[in-house]
Amino acid sequence: MSGGKAGVLLMAALVALVAGCSKDAPLDHGPMVPATTPLQLDVPAYFPQVDIPADNPLTVEGVALGRRLYYDTLLSLHGPRQGKACASCHHQDRAFTVPSPGTGVLSHANLAWSTHFLWDGRVSGKLEDVMRFEVEDFFQVDVQVLRSHPEYPGLFRKALGTSEITSGDVAKALAQWVRRLTSSNSRFDRYLRYEGILSAQELSGMNLFFTEAGDCFHCHGLPLMTDNAFHNIGLDSVFTGANAGRFAVTGNPADLGAFKTPTLRNIALTAPYMHDGRFQTLEQVMDFYSGGVHRSPSLDPIMTKPGTGITIGMSPQQKADLVAFLHSLTDEQFITDPALGSPF
Amino acid sequence: MAYMKLPQRIAFRPVVVAAMAAFAAGCAKEDRQMPGPAPAPAHAVLALEHQVDGQDFRYDTVQYTNEAGQVYGITHLEYYLSQLTLAGAAGTPDQVIPGPWYVNGMNANRFDLGPLPAGTYTGATVQLGLPPALNQTGALPGTLENLLMAWPAPMGGGYHFMKFEGHFLLNGQPTGFAMHLGRDENLVHCTMQQPFTLAGAKDTLVLRFNLNEVFRSPHTYDLTTGNQSMGSMALMGLLRDNCADAFTLEHRP
Of A220, A42, A213, A18, which Cα lies nearest the Cα of B11? Predict the structure, then answer.
């Protein structure tokens, strides 16, 4: 392609992209609470459209309320996790995860596009559904605490048009906040948008990632870097207890050892890795994929390589290149943006 | 430090391609509506069904036997169909419906074909996959389904035409296979020679995909030597040839 043609294409695409990203575009997010301010997610045009429930449109007031609740330990008062808030296990500087021995904490980045939640997908539906689970089951929020609070009734009235404050209202506000937690400005994103470059080693890793040589892309595809599906990647060959994964929800033997694919966005910040946090470093993860996969009847077909083997056999250089590429998925803006931090 | 070449990036060129594709699709629709006195329209539905040599399609059961005698089961089935052409007879003009349609074995897979002229037809053809104009990175709308069917830019770009995955028994042990098909050269042209008549009311055209045909003829496909097809144009060529007669058509008034 000549430089001239490429330039014309690029210019036309830029116009289309800018139009697509316009914050002035009319919104159709369903009925708004009077006097609330509509909010549009600011994500690149290559991200999928977000499916926002008509009865919980994204608003400035709703997101602000959800943010406050997310960081407020009042949520756990009188419940089994006293003194905790959502943010206790989801730190912004760790892409909304936390280092936790024996557990891999899933990031809250880009959950707006998920329909199954938690490692085994035991909660399905929209963010409102998983937040209701968090409010009613995980934290067992005492809504009376919020109702008698000097500020929350007013904030709920302003954001959701109610001061009654039910667990569903708390879930709605939290859902708006988590929907707002979008990560799309890594160095890799800027590379995709022609706003930045990657090093030769990162490009080498990228090519491994997006070809059969590394075969990462089938489960960690663009742009979310997850397929939001469940796979048994061969961590074990025998599955008991928490290692049963999706099987614990479906009872389908084909789901034994299958867990939700985590996003690889910000993966360099979210150690330890896997559902049980068994790997402390990305290098250990590379070693596993290269030669540590275990066979079992439910091993995902993608994990069987040409010739029916289950090892990729990456060289040390290839592993290092892949790790370098994974580091380019860190979104510094996401982990430092004051608007995503604690309001307290 | 280095830049990649333009075709290997995803964010910009696709917008242009999508616009061109949408324009082309719009033209095709106009063409279909041009001819003079229109017969009474039939509002047809395209329905996809799946089976294995007459056996019901079921996920996660290693119960089918392919042409090579290998016992297998299915865990995953997704594909695109495009360019459905109904071959008119006795004065009925050919009807071309460009699609494309995304099919997932987990879904109901019923698609509104819009108004079609009543009349007799000798059969139909359909493409398993996407025409070259749409088989470019970002050319399809950015739905999650389409994004996850992407064929990575470093491997040529575009989309998977088909993902057909499962396990087969190798020395008695379940072993994975992934029949992934893509690239323009491997677009499958499927022919169905069953005649039918659209009566002018709602009709359903059922395309039935016999998954054992993927492994049957003209090539007896051996999963032990071809369990992963994506990186091999030779293996994908076998799948392309075999899939040409994988669909049958049934008209349900």
Answer: A18
